[in-house]
Write a structure and sequence with these properties.
about 300 residues; ATP-binding; six-stranded mixed β-sheet; globular; Rossmann fold; four-stranded antiparallel β-sheet; P-loop_NTPase; Alpha-Beta Plaits; ATP hydrolysis activity; ABC_transporter-like_CS; ABC transporter, ATP-binding protein
Length: about 300
């Protein structure tokens, strides 16, 4: 069953096209990552799905409701949780009062369970909350009515690493229980941690739609090598290295080959330190999608 389906969804603001004929679907019970740099069009898609803005053309269905049918979408939204990037809570209310407000609208059968996992200071007014505490309160309100679908816009923003890990484990448990999660992010590492499938948007266009393992296989690795002494860059470079930068005894590059081949190459040099990590999302776009979007598939 499909929880979300977009068909040529388009939103224009004058001469600017924020979403350009975006087409994909999200299956029930999957964590779908919606990945792109800031300003790529992710939030516009979410606002369209929730009926907060109207499409210029095309359409989408959310839990079977056409986003152009206000009555049907309103009924469907009773079974949707939403964690926006900008939470917009009333600053003078306490955390408890915020949750009470949402409970009156949608229910809160899971409030106690969620507050055992995430611990916003409920008696403090929102104006005194840290960014991380605002995020935890937002997570509780998004899930406490036990929705079938949760839409999350940059959900880990402001959370420290321990709370991020707690949220990732929670999302995996929700997915295993059948909840569909639409997860918007610009951070590759968190998408690879929890998502089953990913759609990549760039400048309003969907440039890729693929399984997360396939995306990671195309991404290469960011590598920093600290050598014992300076080395000639042309001698050190292999065809699998791109964006090579050499400063004194440090060489940085993106490596697109097999890890074993890289390690075999490095044993020929006296190495003080090596650091290998995931590339930044912008690097994946630059090196693997170029200036033209690839066919989604």
């Amino acid at each position: 069953m499909t929880a979300i389906e977009l068909v040529d969804l388009t939103k224009r603001y004058g001469e600017t096209t924020a979403n350009d004929a975006v087409t994909f679907d999200v299956g029930s019970g999957e964590i779908f990552g919606y990945l792109g740099p800031n300003g790529a069009g992710k939030t516009t898609t979410i606002r369209l799905l929730l009926g907060l803005i109207k499409p210029t053309s095309g359409t989408a269905t959310v839990l079977g409701a056409d986003i152009r049918d206000r009555r049907a979408l309103t009924e469907a939204k009773a079974n949707i949780g939403y964690l926006p990037d900008d939470l917009g809570f009333e600053e003078r209310l306490t955390g408890r009062q915020v949750l009470d407000h949402f409970a009156r609208m949608r229910g809160d059968e899971r409030r106690a369970e969620l507050l055992d996992l995430f611990h916003p200071p409920l008696e403090k007014p929102i104006e005194n909350y840290s960014h991380g505490n605002r995020r935890m309160l937002g997570i509780v309100q998004a899930f406490m009515h036990d929705p079938d679908l949760v839409i999350m816009d940059e959900p880990t923003s402001g959370l420290d690493p321990l709370k991020q890990d707690r949220m990732y484990a929670f999302l995996e448990g929700e997915r295993d229980a059948g909840t569909t999660i639409f997860f918007s992010s610009h951070i590759l590492s968190e998408v690879q941690r929890v998502c089953d499938r990913v759609g990549i948007i760039r400048e309003g266009k969907l440039v890729a739609l693929e399984e997360i393992d396939d995306l990671l296989g195309r991404g290469g690795k960011d590598v920093r090598v600290q050598l014992a002494e300076p080395v000639d860059e042309e001698t050190f470079r292999t065809p699998e290295m791109i964006d090579v930068e050499t400063v004194d005894t440090t060489v940085r590059f993106t490596y697109t080959g097999e890890p074993a081949a890289l390690l075999e190459h490095l044993v020929g040099y006296e190495i003080d330190d090596v650091d290998i990590g995931d590339p930044q999302l912008d690097d994946i776009f630059k090196h693997y999608y170029g200036d033209e979007p690839v066919e989604a598939g």
